[in-house]
From TrEMBL:
Native source species: Roseomonas fluvialis
PROSITE patterns: MFS, SUGAR_TRANSPORT_1
Subcellular location: Membrane
The Major facilitator superfamily (MFS) profile domain, residue ranges: 33-425
Gene3D superfamilies named among the record's database cross-references: MFS general substrate transporter like domains (1.20.1250.20)
Record InterPro entries: MFS, MFS_dom, MFS_trans_sf, Proton-linked_MCT, Sugar_transporter_CS
Membrane topology: Multi-pass membrane protein
Protein name in UniProt: MFS transporter
Keyword Transmembrane helix: yes
Length: 427
């Protein structure tokens, strides 16, 4: 009887010791999680703000170097493609070394790209400095930060993904006012140089909010972070094993096909709207509507996904992209294009915000960097191939209607592929 009492006393003492430690660990995880989320927001704001700010200076660069519209468009295509292509390397590296060193390197490259572009002496140098260096820098920071968010949040992962992804929307929204502000003090060279300094300061601040090396596999339960404990309890498939399965290949192809509908409006909507009688200012206003609706979609659909189910909301966003693209193909008046811009923007925001969360839900959090990084290379393929193919089709067919309708069918095939992706777990 005495032995039983002593055993119960030891268990009670152990529980009294472990419970406060568990509460402290949970509180620390909460603080670190939201600090990480702030860092991811800043990294996305700086990286994609730099990529999209090129559009504000494209005409000035074309006038300075005698470049054609094709050469100026190449800079944007290259920066976006390089960003997503390098994710195939930055994601797995983040799983091994942590996101902080990669984010620091990425933001340093963005600042360097802006600074060197300010001193460019030819359009070729602009293409290399702005299109390649800034794109690669953003890619080295983007996926490691987004993957870290997936590992840090289980409850509220959809909303957290939406907040992190909203950084790119805020960066894009700041392009026009910042360009006008900097133009008051000098030409495009001054704007690039000043932006490089700002990107270095803000970007490196965001990078320092990222976690360092991930916990070792051999750590004890009290030494390991709560995120690692949760991943071990779920017993999820590691990233390397997840990407080698048929399910990942199916998801990759599905995201690639849906991304065709994502990239086309940014390259062909303005000309399509002008064909329907809108002037250039009103046509560009449609892109602004897409940006505003996208911001709302990231927050609202991300939050709703945690209630209604992230898989359901992600598939719903992808399907709505297809419906919006169909509406664009059928549009015969400016009001129809406005409806398309709002519907597309909201669903585009939901798709971008929930794609990383969906990937983490399907394949687990332990290898989130590897899974998300390799998955995002499909977007690089779409960025390079879809606008070019659509451009040739528009010229050959004399209009946007048939090429856009075909893009909607391609996106529908992508949604059907995503629907059959199974959730992978290992025993």
């Amino acid at each position: 009887m005495s032995l039983q009492v002593d055993t119960m006393d030891r268990h009670a003492a152990l529980a009294a010791t472990v419970a406060p430690a568990a509460r402290d660990a949970k509180s620390q995880e909460f603080v670190l999680g939201w600090r990480l989320l702030a860092g991811a927001f800043l990294l996305n704001m700086v990286g994609f703000g730099a990529i999209y700010s090129y559009a504000a200076f494209a005409d000035d660069l074309a006038a300075a170097f005698g470049g054609s519209r094709a050469s100026t468009a190449l800079v944007f295509a290259l920066s976006s493609a390089c960003c997503f292509a390098v994710s195939g390397y930055s994601g797995p590296l983040a799983d091994r070394f942590g996101p902080r060193p990669l984010a620091i390197m990425g933001m340093a490259m963005v600042a360097l790209g802006l600074a060197t572009a300010a001193a460019a002496r030819s359009m070729t140098e602009v293409v290399i400095c702005y299109g390649v260096v800034i794109g690669l820098g953003t890619g080295f920071a983007y996926v490691p930060a987004i993957a870290a968010v997936q590992r840090s949040f289980t409850v509220g992962r959809g909303l957290a993904s939406g907040i992190a992804a909203a950084g790119s929307g805020v960066g894009t929204a700041m392009v026009l006012p910042m360009a006008e502000l900097l133009s008051a003090f000098g030409d495009w060279r001054f704007a690039f140089a000043a932006s490089g300094i700002g990107a270095g300061i803000v970007g490196l601040a965001g990078a320092m909010l990222m976690p360092g090396m991930p916990p070792r596999r051999g750590a004890t339960a009290l030494q390991a972070s709560a995120r690692e404990i949760g991943a071990q309890r779920l017993n999820v498939a590691p990233g390397a094993k997840a990407v080698s399965g048929r399910g990942f290949v199916t998801l990759y192809l599905g995201v690639l096909l849906v991304s065709v509908t994502v990239v086309l409006p940014f390259s062909h909507l303005v000309s399509s709207a002008q064909d329907l009688g809108l002037n250039r200012a009103d046509a560009l206003g449609l892109l602004a509507m897409i940006g505003i609706a996208s911001m709302a979609g990231r927050f609202v659909l991300g939050a709703l996904a945690d209630v209604a189910g992230r898989r359901f909301m992600f598939l719903g966003s992808a399907m709505t992209l297809v419906a919006a693209t169909t509406l664009w193909a059928m549009a015969a008046s400016p009001p129809a294009l406005i409806a398309f811009a709002i519907l597309f923007g909201a669903s585009y925001g939901g798709f971008i915000a929930l794609l990383p969360a969906f990937a983490a839900d399907q394949f687990g959090r332990q290898g989130a960097g590897t899974v998300i990084g390799l998955l995002y290379t499909s977007r690089a393929v779409a960025v390079l191939a879809a606008p070019l193919a659509a451009g040739f089709a528009v010229e050959a067919l004399g209009g946007h209607r048939i090429p856009v309708a075909v893009a909607a069918l391609v996106g529908l095939a992508g949604v059907m592929l995503i629907m059959i992706v199974p959730r992978q777990r290992v025993a």
